[in-house]
Specification:
By secondary structure, the chain is mainly α. It contains 13 helices and two strands, in the order ααααααααααββααα. 68% of the residues lie in helices and 2% in strands. Bound molecules: Phenylacetyl coenzyme A (FAQ).
Amino acid sequence: MATAHQPPVVAEDEAVAGAVDTAAAAVDTAALESAFDAAVAADERIEPRDWMPDAYRATLVRQIAQHAHSEIIGMQPEANWITRAPSLRRKAILMAKVQDEAGHGLYLYSAAETLGTSRDELLDKLHAGRQKYSSIFNYPTLTWADVGAIGWLVDGAAITNQVPLCRCSYGPYARAMVRICKEESFHQRQGYELLLALSRGTPEQHEMAQDAVNRWWWPSLMMFGPPDAESSHSEQSMTWKIKRHSNDELRQRFVDICVPQAESLGLTLPDPDLKWNEERGQHDFGAIDWSEFWSVLKGNGPCNEQRLTQRRRAHEEGAWVREAAAAYAAKHSDHDKDRRPATPGTHGEATA
Ligand code: FAQ
């Protein structure tokens, strides 16, 4: 009977409708995916409202967050020297540089927020040790020359890595990198100029500059990440054009840039195997101690604990500033609301 069959008939209809929906969704996703792939292949920018694969989004959040955390943790080693800078000029330069790093962190957290995460969430993960920051900032700044070595080598490595990121497929990250690279380039020059002054100074100052370069050289090479064969994300990130070059390619480029600069500085790079290879048109260099790199990543570098403790403390102690800023913003948005005409333009005011 018709009535007896009705429910199964309805269920069958629903099942058919459900299957059609699933098939349509699959077709939609496939179409979206191929549009995304075509946009990436054509070097178009992916913007926040565009469809993107979940894994692309997750990769960007991971990398941008790690980058942002590096900028703000990276303020610590240099800030250590602000009170002990040898002149007012050097102090003013260093303060401006450290402030720039904070700014870079903010641009990057904002870029990450366009992917649907929040700065609070990312900071919580950093403080809980669930997200990384660059290995380089787990080394101590023992002398004033370290400020120069950080500028020359660490900012130099950062620029080498970041200039290609200005062409990253994700628009907000690429645009943030343009401004950051301009500032990093200034930072690199101040480090070079500082080291040059020390290198040409007294024998003790020259020795201090050399010692700083000896300590920062190898960790700077590690900043580019593990060798290509051990880089878990490179292949996919390069297909998506998040990364444009592999870790080893950029590391090689950095070595080739540094060798003539070290010569001009009158300093030696601490690598007896470093030599020009005529055939390759590049420098050969010695083996990197990757066990040190992985150990630092696991939290066992000389300053890991100190950096995270200081970061957590700064966050807690800064709570009142965030609360005050939020209260101020809320007060002003109410205030602005009161001053706004009920119907835009009713008082003949400009409403733009
Ligand atoms: N430190 O598969 P890959 C600066 C991790 S900013 C710690 O090759 P990927 C400015 C990696 O996350 C410096 N961890 O990874 C400044 C992954 O672990 P996961 C920061 C590292 O992402 C100057 C695992 O190893 N710059 O210095 C490091 O494809 C002076 C496997 O590695 C950026 O973040 C490392 N060095 O390539 C501030 C640039 N390397 O996440 C103050 C943007 C690798 O699976 C003073 N980032 N790992 O758990 C990138 O270009 C890339 O993320 C790489 C790594 C190249 C760093």
